[in-house]
Amino acid sequence: MYKCTQCGATKRRLRSEPVYECRRRATGPEQQEGERLGVSDNCSACQCFVFFTQLRGHPEPPVDRSIFNPARPVRMSENGNGHPMPIVPMPRNRQEPESDSAESSDDLSEERERKTSGISLHKAMVVCTLRGTYKISQNMDRRKTMRRLARFCLKINHKLKKTQKELQELKQVEKQQLRALARQDRKKRHNAGTHFELKSPSIWKGKELERIFGVAASCNDKDNPRADALLLSLLKSMQKQVESKDQPRVEAHSKMMQLKRSHYQRIAHDPTKVVRLAKRPNWSTPLKVKGPPLGAQFNTVPVTHKELLSVFTDKSHLLTDTGPKEMITSCNPVHCPVEQCHRVFFPSDLHTHLIYDHQTLNVERVGLRQTKTLYLHPKFAKLNEATSIMLYQVKDKIIGRTKGVRFGNLLPVLLMAARTRYSDVIGLNKQTPEEILLVWLCSFRPTNIRIFGTVSVASSRPNMPDTLSALTAQPYDIRDPRTMAALFQSPSVMFVPHAQLQCMTRCGKDVITVQVHFQ
Fold it and tell me: Per the record, which residues fall in region Disordered (predicted)?
């Protein structure tokens, strides 16, 4: 068993041909050779070329005596003091003639000598010390580098979060600017191209006429040629702004304007097959039609300047600003328009109450100058009781709170219907079974906004223009009483007589077509 002189690692056996050996000097004349102290070999623990010492209790391997020269007598001339010359071990690698079979072994020995040349125990220890010191410094540099990288990553993450926050703020500002531009465009469309707003309800007042047309107050007569010429020029400019690609082109010499009127449109096929209501015994719910086969009953027709002037004179509110405004109405609590519901709430909670508390009520959004069509069976309306048929959310009419309010900019308008008898509203003989149908729109009555809705009722069968009935009026005030007598006398409620209703539905076999239009 051998032990490394540097690290103390043990080794059972050494290689067969050691390069260097260290032996003790002979002390007596009878001893021809010294005791071996160490043998050179590679240590696997410290990775150095060091000496190994033999441990006690283990037999020493046989020594090859051919590697030592015999002692020879010492003369006075050689040593000078008369003592014999000490025996010095000689290296084992003796020079032998080279042969072809020993070329490979010579190459290995040369490589081994090249690797182990100039290596000593002291040098090996110094190399190990330097190597360990270098490793420690390298670890310290690595820690410093990792700390610097961590600080750099924190700075980059902070800058990245700051940049992302600034980018989100820029996006929000851009959205706000786009919404403001869209709101301005919407207001321009609502104004219908007019750049003026009349304070008085009539366009023939002196101050307004002088401010708009440049006519003095003394010349405010309708037969004034100067005023008529200015009015014609104004109408021409309005005609250029109102015309669109969908409207038919009118020749220049005709001097015609476009006016929206109601006229009968026939349907292409039977709507009962579309909505699948022909075989339903219970007419409990009205059905909406995504693509109604019935054309809109409100289209534009050409009129002359005189007719247009008469319309403007009779309906001067059409020239006022129709853009969205904040609704001004009474804050007193109101009752729910649904008869079965007895809740009382504030006007701001009406829309939310109808959406969440009456989920069976059909809801649909509608814009201004847009027509919605539905099919309704008269039996769906209850006798002597107001029935809610549809909830329309009118857009671009009011401006409400947008933060925390989901339906702030939508005006709720209910389409309602009821059946009653002449005897209940007029006081005739109570034994008459003839019934009439009442249809109306119900909503708030703001003091600063004019809301007009048109309701038309027609037969679902083609070629029956005599069954068309249309009514344009403001919605019925939600605060007014909903008794049959009050509804029958109101100008906002349209009623269909019994004979016309029987003709439209073929004595209750067909449905009727209801169209709603807001402006």
Answer: 63-117
Distances (CA, A) of 234 to 230, 240, 304, 316: 6, 10, 14, 15
pLDDT digits (tens, 9 = 90+) for 271-328: 555 555 444 545 555 555 444 445 555 566 677 777 777 777 776 666 665 678 888 8
How many Å apart are CA 421 and CA 14, to the nearest integer? 127
**CA-based nearest residue to 92, from 53, 119, 121, 64:** 64
3-state secondary structure of 49: strand
- Whats the size of the chain, residue-wise? 519
Residue 487 domain-assigned (yes or no): yes
Could you tell me if residue 191 is inside a domain? no
Instruction: Show the tokens assigned to 149.
Output: 């990288």
- Residue 435: CATH number of its domain: 2.60.210.10
Question: Is the residue at 489 inside a domain?
Answer: yes
Residue 456 sits at the vertex; the CA angle it makes with 491 and 465, to the nearest 5 degrees, is: 120
- Tokens 């239009």, located at residue: 517
Is 296 within a domain? yes
Number of domains present in the structure of the chain: 1
Non-local (6+) Cβ contacts of 190 within 8 A are 321, 322, 323, 324, 368, 396
Dihedral sign computed on CA atoms, order 29, 32, 35, 39: positive
477 by DSSP, 3-state: which?
strand
CA angle 234, 235, 240 (to 5 degrees): 100
CA pair distance 377, 505, nearest whole angstrom: 8
Residue 355 to residue 494: CA distance in whole angstroms? 26
Q: Which domain holds residue 310?
A: 271-518
pLDDT at residue 215 in the model: 47
